[in-house]
Amino acid sequence: MSSTELPSLLTATASPKASAVRVAPGERLRSVRLPGITLSVRSRPPAREGLPPALYVHGLGGSSQNWSALMPLLDELVDGEALDLPGFGDSPPPDDGNYSVTGHARAVIRHLDAAGRGPVHLFGNSLGGAITTRVAAVRPDLVRTLTLVSPALPELRVQRTAVPTGMLALPGMPALFTRFTKGWSAEQRVRGVMALCYGDPGRVTDEGFRNAVEEMERRLQLPYMWDALTRSARGLVDAYTLGGQHSLWRQAERVLAPTLLVYGRRDQLVGYRMAQRAARSFRDSRLVSLPDAGHVAMMEYPEAVAAAFRELLADTRQSGVGADPASMGSGPGDWDLDADSPSAWVSSPGAGAGAGAGAGAAAVASASVGASVDASREGGPVAGGGSAAADGDESATEGPPSRSPGVGS
Q1: Residues 238, 100: contact at Cβ < 8 Å?
Q2: Could you write out the DSSP letters of every residue in 10-52?
Q3: Taking the mean position of all CA atoms in its chain, how far away is CA 100?
Q4: Which residue from 16, 157, 256, 408 has the highest number of Cβ atoms inside 10 Å of its Cβ?
Q5: Cα(193)–Cα(201) distance, integer angstroms
Q6: What was the pLDDT predicted at 408?
């Protein structure tokens, strides 16, 4: 039995009949069948042919809808897709029940290999940040640039507001939490999610709130919702404990792709104090500090994230960095994508290996923010005299749709 298995919880191998997943104007949703998994993939038609591909990966409890506000802002730059991780959104659980960070990373790699879309501009939020960092480290040939919004990297001093999510990984806690929240309506759950994940929940429109409630109601119909959430939370906690070459911070150091780091000062789930450590760990990094942001800036302030990504592209094009990702490392033949052991992700010298783990939303959610943008290179001054310095270091749709808190972190 894997470390992420929770035998007391219901596991489903196929998606039950639930209400339809919302598709914003200009978006398309399709199902992709791969060995051991079926993925739901959300996409938008690019502004023109020949644009480089991009892939967006959501956080714990989230879905591809978490990227619906950002994707149209980048239509002229990339050919974007956002996937639902196994067990989330409209994707059914994986056949093997593996919800570890490695298992999710393997799903992303399988999709990219099967689609032949690599190298891509890879985006990840929270848990998705851990997953995409691992992908960028072990398969540098698949990644042009890496953009991480509040990435879930290990913290020794976890914020108190993030503790309930970590507790979902403890034996017996999922059942207790389910009983405790049994009488909660979908609207109450969404309000709790917004309070936890947004820097300013008041920015959510009425339409966005209604869409989030509808999505919560849909998810509550899925018999495997809590199973996928709790197993993924346990997988995230497990990833915190890995040391040596499997350490998520060590793997972050091995990422070769130019990396954009986006942190919110009001994030209650991923500590802002980790921003400077992340900037030092990723060898070619740019740090953007969003003073009014919470946990998922691409949902509350997508324009700020889009502007930072444009600057990343302009910078890498000018310097020529990351122009040939295929030359950075080995192809799929060098990786055992079917192994469950972390040792399957050990890279050869110069290749690298994957990212961090962190807390998600106890109420199953995600959303975040930013007002002014203070960008800095690792080791360089903060542009515009902004406040990118961390509070302390940690040692050892047609056009943007209405912004909705969705569910995820």
Answers
A1: yes
A2: ---SS--S-PPPP--TT-EEEEEEETTEEEEEEE---SSTTPP
A3: 14
A4: 408
A5: 9
A6: 54
Is 34 within 8 Å of 111 (Cβ atoms)?
yes
What are 202-261's pLDDT values in tens digits? 989 999 999 999 999 999 999 999 899 989 988 888 887 777 777 788 889 999 999 999
Q: Which among 256, 50, 286, 47 is positioned nearest to 144, based on CA atoms?
A: 256
Q: At 289, phi and psi to the nearest 5?
A: -105, 125
What is the per-residue pLDDT across 42-97, written as a single tens digit (0 to 9) for each? Answer: 999 999 999 999 999 999 989 999 999 999 999 999 999 999 999 999 999 999 99
Q: Comparing C-alpha atoms, which of 2, 287, 291, 335 is closest to residue 148?
A: 287
Which distant-in-sequence residues (6+ apart) come within 8 Å of 393 by Cβ?
Answer: 273, 276, 277
**Which distant-in-sequence residues (6+ apart) come within 8 Å of 389 by Cβ?**
276, 382
Phi-psi region of 305 (alpha: psi -120 to 50; beta: other; left: phi over 0): alpha
**262 phi and psi, to 5 degrees?**
-120, 120
Confidence (pLDDT) at 15: 43
Residues 150 and 244: their CA atoms lie apart, in Å, by 24
Q: Angle, to 10 degrees, between the axis of helix 225-241 and the axis of helix 127-138?
A: 60
Which range has the worst mean pLDDT, 22-31, 117-126, 349-358? Answer: 349-358
